[in-house]
Amino acid sequence: MLSIDLSGKRAFVAGVADDWGFGFAIAKKLAEAGATVCVGTWPPAYGIFTKMLERGKLAESLQMPGGGTLAFERIFALDAEYDTLADAPIELRENRRYKEHDDFTIQGVADRMVAEFGARPLDVVVHSIANGSEVKNPLLETSRKGYLSALSASAYSFVSLVQRFGPLLRPGASFVSLTYMASERVVPGYGGGMSSAKAALESDTRTLAYEAGRRYGARVNTISAGPWASRAASAIGFIEKMIEYARKNSPLVEAIDAADVGATAAFLCSPLAAGITGTTVYVDKGYHSMGVGVDEAGGGPISNA
Ligand code: NAD
Questions:
Q1: Mean pLDDT, range 161-183, rounded to an integer
Q2: Would 207 be classed as within a structural domain?
Q3: Which residue, by CA, sits nearest to atom 33 of ligand 1?
Q4: Looking at residues 218-233, what average pLDDT do you find?
Q5: Of these residues, 156, 190, 216, 287, which one is catalytic?
């Protein structure tokens, strides 16, 4: 029977700090497919996440449908805004949330993986990170600093991850990131340069697919997910409205589930997707394909459904 088999593979999922974001759902599906999973957690969220795990607060979410429990092989502190420790300001390194971790940068985590697991320890690298300090500001009111911070945390971090984790990959490896349709269509309220960051991420997916394909034989894809009430999305302030709007206006009328995104990521990272690279894959119940809203009474302006 055809199935997704990632047994013997090791994955690193960057951007897991609770049990309801896309990163967690992806980690779980990768584990269900047989992979060993390490995660990268933002230092400000590291303490609370590891305490919740230790105290068994996530026990239910860690249960896998086929039996067994998701267990992370390692939880690395990772701040993806920094490539090397020399880039991190001294005040940040001395911050109480950071100083307990040796090297929380992208290169630091890559070096620790090699030290702990050997020269080429990885098959799957997932980027499930976004942050924009001025996300609530319209682009017209976004500062240069806010715009560049959105690009740094949400787009360049992926370029750096591919640069620094590329040399760690075994043959047939795969990168996946998470994007959002605000890269290509206007989503009022998704501000602060976040739409620009997602546009960069999607463009970089194509270029990195070429470069990492030629250099490492690795594949690079991004998943454009529909709205989901994660911690990051809830902070923007209108996620429930977006979910309801997408549900009413999509070809498939149910809201997406994080597990839909997890399953697609597991497929993209599996040998079944060996021919897929440089692509944006929509996991949004088809919302991106609609040209006209249909949520008005009577099925909208044009409806034959
Ligand atoms: P989330 O809050 O679960 O994930 C975001 C993660 O990024 C968090 O774990 C946070 O700690 C981490 N993070 C922030 N800054 C970081 C940094 N500098 N270094 C390391 N980690 C950092 O939310 P999510 O919605 O699951 O987001 C995951 C990805 O999915 C993001 O790229 C997001 O843009 C994308 N996405 C989300 C939606 C949605 O509606 N939720 C839709 C489409 C795409």
A1: 98
A2: yes
A3: 130
A4: 97
A5: 190
Q: Tell me the average pLDDT across 65-77.
A: 95
Spatial contact of 34 and 9, defined as CB atoms under 8 Å apart: yes
Q: Is the CB of 106 under 6 A from ligand 1?
A: no
Average pLDDT over residues 207-224: 98
What are the φ and ψ backbone dihedral angles of 68, each rounded to 5 degrees?
Answer: 90, 170
Which percentage of the chain shows pLDDT scores above 90?
94
Tokens coding 120: 């080429």
**Residue 66 Cα, ligand 1 centroid: separation in angstroms?**
27
Residue-wise burial string across 11-40, b where 16 or more C-beta atoms lie within 10 A, e elsewhere: bbbbbbbbbebbbbbbbbbbbbbebbbbbb
- Between the CA of 303 and the centroid of ligand 1 the distance, in Å, is 35
pTM above 0.85, yes or no: yes
Q: Is residue 4 part of a domain?
A: no
**Radius of gyration from C-alpha coordinates of the chain:** 19
Full residue range of the structural domain in which residue 47 is found? 10-297
Is residue 3 one of the residues assigned to a domain? no
Instruction: Please indicate whether residue 190 is annotated as part of the active site.
Output: yes
Name the pairing type of β-strands 122-127 and 75-77: unpaired
In short, whether 225's Cβ falls inside 6 Å of ligand 1 is yes
Tens digits of per-residue pLDDT, 112-126? Answer: 999 999 999 999 999
CA dist 248 and 61 (Å) reads 28
Residues 244-280 have pLDDT tens digits of 999 999 999 999 999 999 999 999 999 999 999 999 9
